[in-house]
Fold this protein.
Amino acid sequence: NAGVTQTPKFRILKIGQSMTLQCAQDMNHNYMYWYRQDPGMGLKLIYYSVGAGITDKGEVPNGYNVSRSTTEDFPLRLELAAPSQTSVYFCATRARSSGGANEQFFGPGTRLTVL
Amino acid sequence: GQQVMQIPQYQHVQEGEDFTTYCNSSTTLSNIQWYKQRPGGHPVFLIQLVKSGEVKKQKRLTFQFGEAKKNSSLHITATQTTDVGTYFCAGPTGANSKLTFGKGITLSVRP
């Protein structure tokens, strides 16, 4: 099992360009999340989804969009990239709570630079 | 909204020393989770604490949940270079569908 995969690993964008960060999971988890991590700032939630067809905003959604048409995939779209979106982006998943640990499983991350 | 605080953000220890860090929440938590992120890596789940006053051990790591369920601690006995990384605590929000992460504490260990 691959777990949580993210593509690409690295990307450099010019200001105003757009791109889609891909996230896929093979664990059949209902919950999926997108975080951004800036130095010294911890993990900030951008968007999340509790199941296919359902998405909701997190703490820092401006400048991003998501969709969840399948359980497996949760792409993050950046429109009109700005230098403030330079960050490391992590996708994470979580199983529906069954009384056990509600741990999140993280992908390896995408390092994005906007110049 | 809910805040999860970890202070300080950086700590440097000599290999073999003990290390303790704390996590404080602005609200009572149903549970608290700890994650570790190695340099250049992604966060990896370590443990979840649920009960008031709960203590769990993983080899040299000891985790405790406060009696009021608003704080938690992580204690590492006799640190090793393999303990290097950033340790995050996180508490659930949004009807337990989301986590709020602290800013993390980055531990460096001098050999």
About this structure: The interface with chain A takes residues 9, 31, 33, 35, 41-45, 47-48, 88, 92, 96-104 of chain B (CB under 8 Å).
